Amino acid sequence: MRFxxxxxxxxxxxxxxxxRYTKPTEYPDARINFGNGGGFSGMVTEYVLLDNGQLLKKxxxxxxxxxxxxxxxxxxxxIFDNYSFLxxxxxxxxxxxxxxxxxxxxxxxxxxxxxxSGNQYPEQYPNLKxxxxxxxxxxxxxx
Length: 143
What we know:
Blueprint: H1 4-16, E1 31-38, E2 44-50, E3 54-59, E4 64-70, H2 73-85, E5 99-107, E6 110-117, H3 126-137
Antiparallel strand pairs: 1-2, 1-5, 2-3, 3-4, 5-6
């Protein structure tokens, strides 16, 4: 009987804690993948922002991700709203070179993908530069 309050608290904690996703492909709602790759090694660095605020980073070249931060829900909502407000989904651009950057937006069964060369943002899409830089700003700096 004396363990009952502790057991009840543990149950409430587990029941109320948000689901933590480490496989973005299993996430049912909107997500934004972004990153860069290419060069001599061909290495790709990929981040995924889920609309629940979880920020994941892809580990090596396998389909394994780790949660590296949880972004404030208001900031997360603002990022997803900016995607629409800045009209990023209407951009059709796929011109990678040796070094490239990418942005992908997934919602339900829809995917929007933009790929461009290195640090050279497409001049005709200034909103892409603004949006991408905002995304990069949420990545925690290594200690």
